[in-house]
Amino acid sequence: MTVDIRTRPEKGLVDAPGPEDREFSFSGEDYAFLRAMLKERTGIELGPTKQNMVYARLAKRLRRLGMQSFRQYIEFIGSEAGREELGTTLNALTTNLTKFFRENHHFEHLAGQALQEIRARAVSGGRRLRIWSAGCSSGEEPYSIAITLLRAMPDVKQWDARILATDIDTEMVRRGAEGVYNASALEGMPHEIASKYFEPHGPGKVRLCTEARALISFKYLNLIESWPMKGP
């Protein structure tokens, strides 16, 4: 038996201060180009009111690269020399909104209903389970899923169970794979979960336990491109 459960957290874009403090020239044509580029490459469509936000996100890149205008930056990311910077641009324009057990009723449903039905059907079939966190951000969602599996399925090690965690933001994928978070991320989490599935990892840091990390594969994936999955 193969079970496919797909989840995707919200991704939003946040407003920024107005143009009066702008250090670099940023025309309507520049914004139109970046809007079109982002939609073509990620499927994310920015509204006409997000120009200030885009400026705030990318001005720091211009400053670091010693550039004088957004037109210069746009020409750079369109060149062969700027190919790596283009990835940084896309990362900067996608906002990751996530936390552990965000909208907890989803995880309660997974544990109390979905997994119980899966276990019942597995009596006469194979014990193969695949869960996909399609926009995993920095990993809080897939780790919440992993903890849910460990708690609801004590025999999970006897299953062929894997969680695929993907995101377009390469830095988020790296952070998720590392599994290290500020200890403040555990605030509000039940003590029995925090103490069992997280361990100290340096001053003010915690890391997911080995059992949770072993269930997840973190991969870069742009959802508008080809999906690499070989099975359902």
Order of helices and strands: EEHHHHEHEHEHEHEEHE
Structural class: alpha/beta
Largest sheet, order of strands side by side? 1-4-5-9
Number of DSSP strand runs: 9
Let me know the largest β-sheet.
Answer: 4 strands, parallel
| Separation of the first and last Cα atoms | 10 Å
User: Which blocks of ≥5 consecutive residues have pLDDT under 50?
Assistant: 1-18
Helix count from the secondary structure assignment: 9
- C-alpha Rg, in Å? 21 Å
Principal-axes shape call: elongated
Descriptive report:
By secondary structure, this protein is an alpha/beta fold. Helices cover 43% and strands 17% of the residues. It is built from nine helices and nine strands. It has a four-stranded parallel beta sheet. It has a three-stranded antiparallel beta sheet with strand order 6-8-7. Helix 6 links the parallel strand 4 and strand 5. Helix 5 packs across helix 6. The radius of gyration is 21 Å and the shape is elongated. The N terminus is likely disordered.
Can you give me a brief rundown of this structure?
The chain is an alpha/beta fold. The chain has 9 helices and 9 strands. The longest helix is centred in the middle third of the chain and has 17 residues, at 105-121.
